[in-house]
């Protein structure tokens, strides 16, 4: 079946099997490999993208379910001139990434968290990112980065 | 100009990961892989059985299926992963007539499309003739159920020895415990994957998610019967010790590519990953004896390692535990008995710390038990037994020689930073008030071994535009080598770090390498870069002298300008670009470190335990970790954070569980309780730097230190929180159920 999505401002139409997951559509059909797959139980958040501005785990949705809607992935976060989004900048400044595998999903989840709670406390950041796993950083610098991006102390 | 070394340079590798993501094996869009077939494994669903039959006929007819392979089709000899293991315990890449653990690959299916593999796998019918199962290593040690009857034993490595009956003579207090250092899923966030393609020139090009391209060469050569390999490790999403070399699955992928003569790709699922990538797993029987005034006189640890179904590196790790068994303590008599046995569970890999966390967990848990026994504060007992500060090598009763250390200073630093006395007061008042939430304070002091000696390669090339490329045999997968190595090369050349690139993980571009593991990279790889930089500067000086018609001895390198000139007359000079010229300038060297280095530290964990539910909250974690000279404290801290989280996870929540029939109960990330943001606080890190004399940087390893101290610190804190209720020990992970049960039993 044909599925059409606007991803990072560009329209993408592909013929896919009805069972195709959104994350596979993004990675395999569109070829945007920044969005990662880290589990098979919707537990890790490595696949987090924005669907109409809200963070979703793209492994939990069929591409067909979101036909016609707007997506943003990590590749669409920085400005067109390459200037990093404040969240990307905060991750860089605070060493919020090591191997980088969780990073795209983590950054997308964090951006969405600040949309909902602009100046979060540490607890709010930790609760907001509970569904995004990282094996490298112990979360310390991720939390610090999100607090910094949110102007929290 | 102030040195760049020791400063918090932000990582040069970040922007790519933050904007488009890394390129992991599954992201490769290399044209050589166009039209690749996908490989899917059919894995054993039982723990121990003879394979009565494997019927692949329906699967062969499923859509997109190109070929199906079993053991007999591969003609790959089973391999013994280390020569020291029991010869009869070789591992076949696909099961050879018998399966020995749930998840063991039996069949490989090749399909046109990726999704077709999973569908076809459903049609493979495996008829299992069940064999008796042994999951518990203690039972396995009895040799009643044998995994390899030809071996006549389940012992894969080491041997049984009679303990010394006189060891605890003269001790007026002796404690004895059995400790379970549980199995964990390693769970790097990127699972394993491999792609292989026979190139036109007859070579095999292999992409691996591995901690070292070079460390995979030997096993792939043996399996493929060819020397001619080009191995590449692209970005790797974490390894933690368990992505060393090539796995059984990688071998199958490469062999099938060879047999098919075309490109093959494979990416495992998370379930496959946790079923096959596990670490730790020791049963430790410990005894400690000493005087009632707190002097420890003797310590014994009898280690039974659970090797899993085939001996891999994990089977060897009880030896690493043995080396570090006495830890930071000056104990006159130490006896270690160590061996590992096979069981019907996943073969054990290395996992962050690999044998040293187990050593620290044993001695640190036992010393607290000893402190409770004699009624002395746990910090005080440690003080009375620490090896005093030393600057000359210190040899322990097990024969390990530590390089340099100041354990008393590390302990005092952490106690001070934690506010130890105030915490004890707070604890006393909560106890007196009978609060529901009780405070626990846990200490762990540690010393570990990193790099284990060895050598590493570096090459530095300066191009005609004055930029440089560093080639290393280490293999970064999150550790920030590009930044650290560029800092080292920049400091003595004056070439800015933004103009220094790093090449790694490609056997065509880097001739040799030891990869990344055992916290070796900065001290060996970084020292190799330092040594090579010095050679490069000398070489450049010669060249510049020729160009300037001057004496090399008269030339100085102005590192601010990146330019050579005659001392005192800076007008005539040669920049790096000019010195390199059209041909460029390149120098390579190997750095060798004769033996390991011994980072040390002290950790304090503070927990709150809900005495009604057994719920534990880790509220503070304070750490002193001395890894010698820090090149980039930002990166060093990141390594400590990650290590602490993984160590705390083992104490709080993580455990890979099998039932008695060898069925995994935690086979995905929904069931395996991977630690998340909410179970952890932010960490309080205290710096300490005691440079090692073993290498010119003065650097020791930092990759594993956090993990090593954190597990016993947290476990000790949990036990401490409820010690006044009569609890003397709680196994890890300290789940609410275990804690609650311990409280109930103590109050009986
Ligand atoms: S891949 Fe989507 S949550 Fe793990
Ligand atoms: S940075 Fe490696 S998993 Fe988060």
CATH architectural category of the largest domain in chain A: Roll
At CATH level 2, the architecture of the largest domain in chain B is: 2-Layer Sandwich
Sheet with the most strands, sense and barrel status of chain A? 5 strands, mixed
Biggest β-sheet description of chain B: 7 strands, mixed
Q: Given the structure, what is the number of helices of chain A?
A: 5
Question: Could you explain the architecture of this structure?
Answer:
The complex is a heterodimer of chains A (about 150) and B (about 750). With about 150 residues, chain A is of the alpha+beta class. Chain A has 2 domains: about 1-75, Ubiquitin-like (UB roll), CATH 3.10.20.30; about 85-150, DNA polymerase, domain 1, CATH 1.10.150. Chain A has 5 helices and 5 strands. A 5-stranded mixed β-sheet of chain A has the order 2-1-5-3-4, with helices on both faces. Chain A starts with a strand and ends with a helix. The model of chain A has no long low-confidence stretch (mean pLDDT about 95). Chain B is about 30% helix and about 25% strand. A 7-stranded mixed β-sheet of chain B has the order 3-5-1-12-9-10-11, with helices on both faces. The longest helix of chain B has 28 residues, at about 520-550. Chain B is an alpha+beta fold. The chains are: A alpha+beta (about 150), B alpha+beta (about 750). One FE2/S2 (inorganic) cluster (FES) binds near residues 39, 42, 45, 47 and 59 of chain A.
Could you list some keywords that capture this structure?
heterodimer; A: 153 residues; alpha+beta; Ubiquitin-like (UB roll); DNA polymerase, domain 1; five-stranded mixed β-sheet; 5 helices; B: 748 residues; Aldehyde Oxidoreductase, domain 3; Aldehyde Oxidoreductase, domain 4; 3 domains; seven-stranded mixed β-sheet; binds FE2/S2 (inorganic) cluster
């Amino acid at each position: 079946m044909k599925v059409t999505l606007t991803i990072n401002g560009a329209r993408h139409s592909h013929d896919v099997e009805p069972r195709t997951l959104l994350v596979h559509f993004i990675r395999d059909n569109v070829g945007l490999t920044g969005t990662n797959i880290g589990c098979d139980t919707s537990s890790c958040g490595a696949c987090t993208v924005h669907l109409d501005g809200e963070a979703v785990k793209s492994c939990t949705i069929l591409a067909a379910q979101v036909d016609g809607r707007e997506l943003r992935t990590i590749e669409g976060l920085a400005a067109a001139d390459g200037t990093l989004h404040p969240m990307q900048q905060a991750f860089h400044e605070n060493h919020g990434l090591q191997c980088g595998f969780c990073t795209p999903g983590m950054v997308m989840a964090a951006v969405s968290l600040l949309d909902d709670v602009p100046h979060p406390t540490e607890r709010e950041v930790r609760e907001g990112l509970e569904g995004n796993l990282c094996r490298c950083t112990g979360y310390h610098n991720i939390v610090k980065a999100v607090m910094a991006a949110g102007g929290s102390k | 100009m102030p040195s760049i070394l020791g400063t918090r340079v932000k990582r040069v590798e970040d922007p790519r990961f933050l904007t488009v993501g890394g390129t992991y094996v599954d992201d490769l869009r290399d044209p050589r892989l166009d039209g690749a077939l996908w490989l899917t494994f059919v894995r054993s669903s039982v723990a121990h059985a003879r394979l009565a039959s494997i019927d692949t006929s329906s699967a062969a007819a499923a859509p997109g299926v190109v070929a199906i392979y079993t053991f007999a089709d591969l003609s790959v000899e089973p391999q013994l992963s280390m020569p020291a293991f029991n010869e009869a315990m070789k591992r076949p890449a696909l099961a050879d007539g018998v399966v020995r653990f749930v998840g063991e690959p039996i069949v490989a299916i090749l399909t046109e499309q990726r999704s077709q593999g999973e569908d076809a796998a459903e049609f493979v019918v495996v008829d299992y003739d069940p064999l008796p199962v042994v999951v518990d290593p203690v039972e396995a040690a009895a040799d009643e159920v044998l995994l390899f009857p030809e071996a006549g034993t389940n012992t894969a490595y080491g041997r049984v020895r009679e303990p010394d009956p006189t060891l605890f003579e003269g001790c007026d207090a002796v404690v004895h415990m059995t400790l379970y250092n549980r199995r964990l899923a390693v769970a790097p966030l990127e699972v394993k994957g491999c792609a292989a393609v026979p190139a036109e020139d007859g070579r095999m090009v292999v992409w691996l998610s591995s901690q070292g391209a070079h460390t995979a060469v030997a096993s792939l050569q043996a399996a493929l019967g060819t020397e001619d390999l080009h191995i590449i490790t692209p970005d790797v999403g974490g390894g933690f010790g368990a992505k060393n070399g090539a796995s059984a699955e990688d071998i199958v992928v490469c062999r099938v590519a060879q047999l098919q003569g075309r490109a093959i790709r494979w990416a495992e699922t998370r379930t496959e990953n946790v079923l096959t990538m596990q670490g730790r797993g020791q049963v430790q029987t410990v005894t400690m004896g000493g005087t009632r005034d707190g002097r420890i006189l003797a310590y014994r640890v009898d280690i039974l390692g659970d090797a899993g179904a085939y001996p891999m590196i994990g089977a060897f790790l009880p030896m690493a535990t043995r080396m570090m068994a006495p830890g930071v303590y000056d104990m006159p008599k130490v006896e270690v008995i160590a061996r590992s046995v096979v069981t019907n569970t996943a073969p054990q890999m290395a996992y962050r710390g690999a044998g040293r966390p187990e050593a620290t967990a044993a001695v640190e848990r036992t010393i607290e038990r000893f402190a409770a026994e004699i009624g002395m504060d746990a910090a005080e007992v440690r003080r009375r037994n620490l090896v005093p500060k030393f600057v000359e090598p210190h040899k322990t009763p097990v024969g390990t020689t530590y390089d340099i250390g100041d354990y008393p200073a590390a302990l005092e630093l952490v106690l001070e930073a934690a506010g130890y006395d105030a915490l004890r007061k707070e604890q006393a008042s909560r106890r007196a008030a009978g609060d529901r939430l009780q405070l626990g304070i846990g200490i762990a002091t540690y010393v570990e071994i990193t790099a284990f000696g060895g050598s590493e390669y570096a090459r530095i090339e300066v191009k005609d535009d004055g930029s440089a490329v560093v080639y290393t045999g280490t293999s970064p997968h999150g550790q920030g080598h590009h930044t650290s190595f560029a800092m080292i090369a920049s400091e003595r050349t004056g070439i800015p770090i933004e103009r220094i690139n790093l090449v790694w993980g490609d056997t065509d571009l880097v001739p040799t390498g030891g990869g990344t593991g055992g916290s070796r990279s900065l001290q060996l790889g970084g020292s190799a870069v330092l040594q090579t930089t010095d050679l490069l500067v000398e070489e450049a000086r010669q060249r510049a002298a020729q160009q300037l018609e001057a004496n090399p001895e008269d030339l100085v390198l102005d590192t601010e300008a990146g330019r050579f000139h005659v001392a005192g007359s800076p007008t005539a000079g040669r920049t790096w670009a000019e010195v390199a010229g059209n041909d460029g300038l390149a120098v390579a060297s190997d750095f060798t470190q004769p033996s390991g280095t011994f980072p040390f530290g002290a950790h304090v964990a503070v927990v709150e335990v809900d005495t009604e539910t057994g719920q534990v909250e880790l509220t503070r974690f304070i750490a002193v970790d001395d890894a010698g000279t820090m090149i980039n404290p930002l990166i060093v801290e990141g390594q400590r954070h990650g290590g602490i989280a993984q160590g705390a996870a083992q104490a709080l929540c993580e455990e890979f569980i099998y039932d008695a029939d060898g069925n995994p109960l935690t086979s995905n990330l929904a069931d395996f309780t991977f630690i998340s943001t909410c179970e952890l606080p932010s960490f309080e890190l205290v710096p300490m730097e005691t440079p090692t004399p073993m290498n010119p940087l003065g650097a020791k390893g930092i990759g594993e230190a956090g993990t090593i101290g954190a597990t016993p610190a947290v476990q000790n804190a949990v036990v401490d929180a409820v010690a006044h209720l009569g609890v003397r020990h709680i196994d890890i992970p300290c789940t609410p159920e275990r804690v609650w049960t311990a409280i109930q039993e103590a109050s009986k």
